[in-house]
Amino acid sequence: MGWAGANLAYLLSHAWLPETLAWRVMFVTGVLPALVALLIRRKLRDVPTTQVRRKPREKGAFAQLFAPGLRKHTVLGTLFGATGLGSTYAMQTWIPLYLKEERGLSVSGTAMYIWFMIAGNWLGYVLGGHLHDRIGRRWAFTVFYLGTAVFGFLFMAVPLDALWYNLLLAFVVGFFISAQASGKGALFTELFPARVRGTGAGVTYNVGRGVAAFSPAFIGWAAAGSGLGRAIVTVVTICTALTLLFIWLLPETKGRILD
User: Fold this and answer.
1) Contact 219, 230 (CB under 8 A)
2) What's the predicted TM-score (pTM) here?
3) CB contact at 8 A, 241 and 147
4) Which residues contact 249 (CB under 8 A, 6 or more apart)?
5) How many Cβ atoms from other residues are within 10 Å of residue 93's Cβ?
6) Which residue in 32, 14, 11 sits closest to 23, CA to CA?
7) pLDDT score for 92
8) How many CA atoms lie within 13 A of 124 on its CB side?
9) pLDDT class for 110, splitting at 50, 70, 90?
10) What secondary structure does DSSP assign to 24-61, as a single string?
């Protein structure tokens, strides 16, 4: 829903305003979800302490992540998060500009493709978790990351006059991108015992996300010399290969009983 709202804001702002102003309006519009979150937070209440048996907080949770037994999970999980999100960011961040600049689409044409990608995105979130539980984390991530790369490259290569084929590919790419994401929360949770689970999941995902931010930045830098399409393909290929390596170096956690 958030992505759909952003796409609508993109369509309206660029339709009504000059491009030099439209992107600034989009940037300011990004403040609105934060304001909504603050309003919701005012109505939230913590669970009363009388209903919860709280254990004393253990000290040194971060240090425990790098102790023997957990170090491998922490390092490989963070690398998996970084390369996996790097692949996702490369596609999602630059596809709108790629469609506009290198494929010659108008703002409304670009928005139409993104609508189809969002529809696939929604379906991927709904079904992805079930597929992760059915075939296991390793195979699910392998299928979904390979699917994103293969269908993403097809989407970027097929001529624009094959309209419905392109729109179908946009839908499929959206599905695979979200299906990846629906298994990450489970994987990062299952990699760590209860005493450091919150810290471990937070570190692996968010440190990985910080590193992944260099992916779209590198594409922007490389596009000046090689072209935007080639830069996207290069980064997605490298990130996908590394992501598959890291997920197969991590243990299979399907069905793991959490303490």
Assistant:
1) no
2) 0.83
3) no
4) 76
5) 17
6) 14
7) 82
8) 27
9) confident
10) HHHHHHTTHHHHHHHHHHHH--PPPGGG--PPPPPS-H
